[in-house]
Amino acid sequence: MRIKSWFYGLSFRSRVWFTIVLLITLAVSANGTISYFIAAKVVQKNAFRLSEDTINKTAQVVDQRLRNITVSMMSLTMSDSFKEMMDDVASANTSRYYQHLTLLQKVFSQFSFYDSYIQSILIATPIGDFYPMTSIRLTNQSFYESDMYQQAKIEKRPFWVPRHEDAFFSNREQVISLVLSTIGEIPNQDYNVYIIVNVKENDLLRLIADNQDTTEPGLSYMFINEEGQEIVRSPLYAATDAKWRSSFLERLYSDQNGYFFYPLNGNESLINYARLEVGGNWILLGVQSKERLLAQVNGIKRSTLYALSGCLLLSLFVSNGLTRLLLKPLYKLQELMRRVERNDLNVRYASPYRDEVAQVGLRFNRMLDEIKRLIQDVTDGETEKRKAEIKALTAQMDPHFLYNTLNTIYCKSELGANDDVNDMILSLAHMFQLGLSNGRDWVTLEDEITHMKMYLAIQHKCYDTLFDYRLDIGSGVNLSSTVLKILLQPLVENAIIHGFQNIQNGGHIEIAIHAEAAQLVLSVKDNGCGMDIEEVYRNMRQAATSNKGYALSNIAHRLQLYYGEQARMDLYSEPGCGAEVVLRLPVTEGGVADD
């Protein structure tokens, strides 16, 4: 009753002031509390996600590094020196052991140069061990007497061995090892040859540390397998007892990756884990203290309390004109929203206040930042998709002529035509060198013409009397201009394979290159059987998968992806009267950056 009487006794202005203060107090308190829980939840979720992304990224980097080493060792078996050594292993010929040891030194040096993580390589064979001469081999430890050999006979596939002391070389360092068996030329014959690659434990530790996110304070790593054995050393893991390890490992069997909280050395910790593909059952774990991980949430709590206190104090002094002051920033925010509706995403809300409207404005800013990020992600995704599609189209160029070329080389070699064999091999090597072009998508026009000439030289050796050709380069053509690689050779190949498929001799190809206005015009014309242009265009629109006309469809698609509307392909033909393909490209002077 006293409070009621006191309230009735106040003036109307005081009652309005008191009511506004009370409402503001309740509103600000409720808004601050809700904002805190929302922000805390978002921050906690983002912290978990960032920690999980960090461990997944690190696992991918380690996985990729180990996979590269495996692929490198498989490519070693394709070297001529290795194949010659395998021939002697198959025949148990030990007379050329030192010759093979010498020849393999260059191969070992190349792999050690291109991959610094490879510490040492050992090739164990029944006729002797092969290894880099820069490494000192321990002769008292044979691979065939080791546990690795017993495991290799069981695994029958490449596998990695967790940290152990190097038993084959004098440095005796802690390493992890890749063991893989090789396959010879004779099927179903066990050559009993193994390649052992040692990677220093410290290098793997450095690789993991180099990929640690600097925004993740207190993040520690453990690298183990499902049996609890360490792949590389971890002081944190070594400090735990066996009972803890047993219960801890049970939590890692549920999925390929994930996270959970677990008490570690008396502290509640966030455990993120990701399985590696290369190691089979290897698991990379990231350990972070929950208290340090959620330190930002505590900061938000303090910031929220400070904001609430400030707003409550402000409400005691601000009552008159409160509606006007509140509506003014709302009008400002409304104007910003109208600008956003007109696709202006660069606007941002700014306010000197820290009230509810300011909080909404800050969230509005975050929303705009997120929209811009999503738009950028979509743009980047489309760019990456385009790059992948371009690479796939380039890689799909039909290499069947390579088989015919190799067969022809073999036949001419059997017939003793060594000059032809040498010319074809050199042309083929030069052609592939120009075609690969160090992974670049753009080459000079001169290199593109040379690539085509090498192909024609090879085809002349394969089909002595089938065709001849004439190359005409206009005076205004700049051979240093850059063009999309592998354009002319598929057109010439299409003329030989499809245009001359029904004749034995008399074929003629005219290749013309000239400048026309701001365009570079490439033309390939033959006197073959011709083609049905409408059918070719229809197959190109329907993305035909048959070999007929595939080169034209591939080139047209690549032109569209690289040049867009600036380039086009024109076809001219009548059945039985030959065909002509004309490419019109924009002139590009100088170098072009790779995509």
From TrEMBL:
It is a multi-pass membrane protein. GO terms for molecular function: protein histidine kinase activity. It comes from the Bacteria. Keywords: ATP-binding, Cell membrane, Kinase, Membrane, Nucleotide-binding, Phosphoprotein, Transferase, Transmembrane, Transmembrane helix, Two-component regulatory system. SMART domains: HAMP, HATPase_c. The chain crosses the membrane at residues 305-327. It catalyses: ATP + protein L-histidine = ADP + protein N-phospho-L-histidine. It holds the Pfam family His_kinase. Residues 484-589 form the Histidine kinase domain. This is histidine kinase. Its main location: membrane. The keyword Transferase applies. It is found in: Cell membrane. Residues 324-376 form the HAMP domain. It is an enzyme of class 2 (transferase). The lineage of its organism: Bacteria, Bacillati, Bacillota, Bacilli, Bacillales. InterPro entries: Bact_2-comp_sensor_kinase, HAMP_dom, HATPase_C_sf, HATPase_dom, His_kinase_dom, Sig_transdc_His_kin_internal. Its EC number is 2.7.13.3.
